[in-house]
Specification:
The chain is built from 5 helices and 7 strands, in the order βαααβββαβαββ. The chain is of the alpha+beta class and about 150 residues long. The protein has a single domain, classed as 3-Layer(aba) Sandwich (Aminopeptidase), CATH 3.40.630. Strands 1-2-3-4-5-7-6 form a 7-stranded mixed beta sheet.
């Protein structure tokens, strides 16, 4: 999958993707998931929001935050209308490629414990749970994947 960095002009579409992907979790969590509160303008300006390089409107995004010893997959979101087509798996693969190219041996991520579907997807992709914690009002599950 080819990716491109998000631009300021992508902001409205990014908000649509995030809202579509995360709104169904509000009843499970009791409030909006953390990605719905992110400052995407600042993240775009920092050059950490990646979109599939597609001809039409983007249907997915991921936020990658390089760390000294790993790549943090801070957010991956697929618009509800595009879920089930393999975009999320393709983005996970792209993140792994980017980590390898940067010489980083591991990808880490966290998700809400109520997001059982996401936990299954990450486990099937080879991510292992490393810990659980209650942070900033969220029950989070932390996971990592060592890259070979």
């Amino acid at each position: 999958m080819r990716l491109r960095l998000a631009r300021a002009a992508d902001r409205d579409r990014i908000d649509e993707i995030v809202t579509s992907a995360y709104a169904p979790y509000i009843p499970l969590i009791g409030h909006a998931p953390a990605p719905m509160h992110a400052d995407y303008g600042a993240l775009i300006a920092a050059g950490v929001v990646h979109l599939p390089d597609e001809s039409g409107p983007s249907a997915a995004l991921m936020v990658l935050l390089p760390q000294p010893d790993h790549l943090l997959l801070d957010n991956i979101a697929v618009h509800a209308d595009a879920q089930g087509r393999g975009l999320g798996r393709a983005l996970l693969g792209a993140a792994e490629n980017m980590a390898r190219q940067a010489g980083l041996p591991e990808i880490r991520l966290y998700t809400n414990a109520a997001m059982q579907r996401n936990l299954r997807i990450y486990a099937m992709a080879g991510y292992k749970e490393t810990r659980r914690a209650h942070e900033q009002g969220f029950h989070r599950v932390f996971m990592s994947k060592r890259l070979s």
